[in-house]
Amino acid sequence: MRDPSIVAAFDFDGTISTTDSLRVFVRSTVGTRRFVLGALLASPWLIGCVLRLVDRGTAKAAFLRASIGARSRAQLDIDTRRFLQDRLPGLLRPEMLARVRQHRALGHRIVLVSASPSLYLEPWAATVGFDTVLSTELAFDAQGRFAGVFAKPNCWGPEKLRRLEAWWQDAPPRVLFAYGDSRGDKEMAERADYAWIRGQGELMPLPDAAAPRRTA
């Protein structure tokens, strides 16, 4: 029986996937030469991000502007279909897909919360059965071309928790599971009743009858 009061929130890159899917998507879309050129052109922002002088969203947008340029939404849709068919399946971790299926079998709502673009995460998540996708969204101009910026803030760190809370509004889950792999998942994991971060132990067993871990 479905229990919508229990939510499982999954990060994507490094958690469900084995690597940064955005880099693979861009490189497979524009080719290695353009990928490298884009990284070089965006290096002031990328280096600034490493030095914590530029936020991650600004650096990521700069890299996408320099690499994919003003690509049309129609062309990106074609690129996405090719990526989903040819590249993404090889990046997925079988044990994490099994965990997603396990939550689904228990009737929990499952949510994908990722800094990678909804461009390819939304169609992929629909095939897996996620209830919703909370992710970074590219902005497009009036001509349907990538505007070089994001429609919403980069979905990383505190923004992940903000997106989750906005999604459930005034009906927070009775129990929240969170799965991540990095600093970008810290706030989401701290909010969760059960949290797993890759590299910090084996996947926790799912309780037979999930109950909140926090106490009043």
TrEMBL record:
UniProt-listed InterPro entries: HAD-like_SerB (IPR050582), HAD-like_sf (IPR036412), HAD_hydro_SerB1 (IPR006385), HAD_sf (IPR023214)
GO terms, biological process: L-serine biosynthetic process
Stretches of the chain forming a coiled coil according to its record: none
Tree of life domain: Bacteria
Keywords, ordered alphabetically: Hydrolase
Listed GO MF terms: L-phosphoserine phosphatase activity; magnesium ion binding
GO CC terms of this entry: cytoplasm
Entry annotated with the keyword Signal: no
NCBIfam families in UniProt: HAD-SF-IB, HAD-SF-IB-hyp1
PANTHER family xref list: HAD-IB FAMILY HYDROLASE, PHOSPHOSERINE PHOSPHATASE
Protein name: HAD family hydrolase
Organism: Pandoraea faecigallinarum
